[in-house]
Write a structure and sequence with these properties.
- The protein has about 90 residues and is mainly beta.
- It has one domain: SH3 type barrels.
- Helices cover about 5% and strands about 45% of the residues.
- The chain contains 1 helix and 8 strands, in the order αββββββββ.
- The chain has one helix at about 5; strands at about 10-15, 20, 25-30, 35-40, 55-60, 65, 70-75, 80-85.
- It has a 4-stranded mixed beta sheet with strand order 2-1-7-6, with no helix packed on it.
- Strand 1 (about 10-15) and strand 2 form a beta hairpin.
- The radius of gyration is 13 Å and the shape is globular.
């Protein structure tokens, strides 16, 4: 599957039943062969102002399902990274 097919899909947390964001707004960590290792979700901005919050790293193993519109992930396997601001 190509990134352009994934980028418009919404990420949904299976554990909490909430929307995490859109894959196109996230960063991907790729291995040397080009396979996805993890999805990195940064803190969203609030009215254009960056918020300080730890980035969330979701390993590709935590992806439960990729459907036509959604990607279901298990947030209990996610790791919290360092603080992230979009102004840095």
């Amino acid at each position: 599957m190509r990134f352009r097919e994934l980028k418009e899909k919404e990420l949904i947390d299976f554990d909490r039943g909430e929307r995490l964001g859109v894959l196109g707004d996230a960063d991907l960590i790729l291995d040397p062969s080009g396979r996805i290792e993890a999805i990195v979700l940064a803190a969203p901005s609030l009215f254009g102002f960056p918020r300080r919050r730890a980035a969330v790293v979701i390993p590709w193993d935590a992806v439960l399902s990729v459907g036509p519109d959604l990607i279901i992930v298990r947030s209990s396997q996610a790791e919290t990274g360092g603080l992230h601001t979009s102004a840095e």
